[in-house]
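Listing S7. Sequence submitted for prediction.
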Amino acid sequence: MFLQIKEVLFRILTKLFLPSLARNMEQEGTFQMFEGGSAITDENEYFRIYDNGADVTIFVFSGMDVLFAGEPRFEFRKQLEGIGHPTNFVFIRELRRTAYHNSPSGESDGLEYYTRKVDELKRQLGARVNIAMGASGGGSAAFYFGTRCGFDHVIGFSPAFPETVWTGLGNQLRAIADLGLLFTRPLDYFEVILVALAANVIKHTLNRTIPPDRMWDVYPRYRDANPRPTGTIIYGERCRPDAAQAEICKTIAGVHLMPLATGRHNGPGFLKERGELADTLTSEIRTVLRRLDVPLAPAPSLQDRPVDLQSSPVPVTE
């Protein structure tokens, strides 16, 4: 009953404040977007690998994309150009929307499955430097798999860990009671409420289907890892749950916080609307590569950047 109520609220708020999204979701039949039962099982649909023979690889983990209709999309593809160094790219989609806890086949071994696949791809591409990146649930995945698989750096846009920053009762009440955000930035406010509802639906779905010993432990795993990848957390400073997450992580050595002047959870969307996403990512990645002694060419200006620097994708490894 509790789950159904939250799904109904999600529908109502979406129709009220994001009507075009609601229409698309109804046409595509994706309002039941958290079940995952009808998800694609073809493994090749979950991975896109661009092997450019480079010594730097960037792994991008998709989030649950609860603010978008249709399948979760590859994020940051166009924005990762102009880094100034040859780069391989791996884009990983989570089509089941169960926070990587299910493998493409639907089994509850997702964490082990994706760990194995990421390790295989790291070995296949053979890069000296590996960077993980993602937004929201994809940010959590970037920190989790980046830690398990021995990455050099992780970039998370509003990474949703520990999940209690979104699903904890106190944090939810504080988000709901944020009248300052409601009256000054109402669309930001309702975006936060939609994400909080979706996070709870995903949590209840996981609790029903995934054994407790197979749930991911993103925060303690990252905090206690030795060695631990350095990290960048980019978040909306007026988004209470994301600001709480950043506060929790700010004392971890090697973590750089980058607050944005917004109340939105969707940091990439905020930056993209301002025309700042590509430059923000390029600047941060170049800073990381300099620290890791990777030689860089001068960053091209926006008008000089080619449309697509990647080669054709290669099949996922078996």
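Caption to Listing S7: primary sequence and predicted structure tokens for the chain studied. The beta strands are 47-50, 56-61, 88-92, 129-135, 153-157, 230-236, 255-260. The first strand starts at residue 47 and ends at 50.
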